[in-house]
Design goal:
Layout: E1 9-13, H1 17-30, E2 34-38, H2 44-51, E3 55-59, H3 67-77, E4 83-87, H4 92-100, E5 105-108, H5 113-147, E6 158-165, E7 173-180, E8 183-191, H6 195-211, H7 218-236, E9 240-248, E10 253-259, E11 264-267, E12 273-275, E13 294-297, E14 303-307, H8 321-331, H9 335-346, E15 354-361
Parallel strand pairs: 1-2, 1-3, 3-4, 4-5
Antiparallel strand pairs: 6-15, 7-8, 8-9, 9-10, 10-13, 11-12, 11-14, 14-15
Helix pairs in contact: 5-6, 6-7
Domain Response regulatory: 9-124
GO molecular function: phosphatase activity
InterPro entries: Bact_Sigma-Reg, CheY-like_superfamily, PPM-type-like_dom_sf, PPM-type_phosphatase-like_dom, Sig_transdc_resp-reg_receiver
Length: 363
Amino acid sequence: MTTSEDAYRVLVLDDDPDIAEYTRTVLERRGGCQVLSLNDPRLAVAALEDFQPDVVVTDIEMPGMSGLEVLALMREAQPGLPVIVMTAHVSIDYAVRALRSQADEFLTKPISHPELISIVRRLASQWRSRREADLELDRAAEVQRGLLPRQLVALDGYQLDGDCTPARAVGGDFFDWYPVSDGAAFTVADVMGKGIGAAIIAATVRSVLRSGAGGPDLGQVMSVADSSLEPDLERAGAFVTLFHARLNAALGEVRYVDAGHGLSLVVRAAGGTKRLATTSFPLGSGFGGGWREHILTLLPGDTLVSVSDGVLDLFDGTLASLDEVERIARSASSARDIVDALLERASHGAPDDVTVVVLRRDL
């Protein structure tokens, strides 16, 4: 049985009180809808906020404001809300005008009860599904924002900076950093998936990695993370690529593990660049084991840059794009300048999430 809370909400606009009342009666008694009927179209936009309809049914010819004018205002106030336009006129001109105004359906009077009810239910169901999906994305975006570090790690003699720009409301990328006893740890990761599920997995990855902050070997940390995440990743059909590192600030030593990521490079102040190619599988790939810790030394002026694969799409989409990242790193005066240069390119339209973390040792 449909409750008043579950019933589709329909806003009916018609300057003819008899037609408006007739439409309301049909939709309420035969369609099980909750209906608000208005004879003055100028009240329609305010009703969107107060009544929160799932569908709007409007006449096309009304004094003071036409149905097409109402439709334009509704599209501005609440994009995507389904609108059904009704008219007694059947000319091609009216139909074209309605469709160009982005009406979802164009119906000519008299309208059969079953047809109207069927269309209202279909459009209302689609609208609610879209809204639920949007709410899920909003929740996922909130989770993702909560994963990002809230402040920089203060490191004498080093600059550590980064940022993340999702291509959609929420993406699968995240980065993290936090102080450890001898310096700092930092991560760039990409969960293969979107929505709340990917955001929850990302939160779990972050938590597991942080819990292993005091571990002596990063390879072992990866093994623990893979074991902890395996059930969730298997259910979601997802996997995680990541670059995770720890800096010993006094020695300039960076210990790191790369799990299927392969998008980090060291730009040497003295010349030359080394890409830190991956030697291990992603977490959740089903090929567990083999996460080996590597060590490199940052000399004064050297820069370590780790990016997500969305950065490649800012250029030609191949690994050759890392040459452009190197060029930006060499010309930048600070770690933040490198991050800003890449995010500026992303601001012009990035097809995928863009995440960047930069560690530079001061001269």
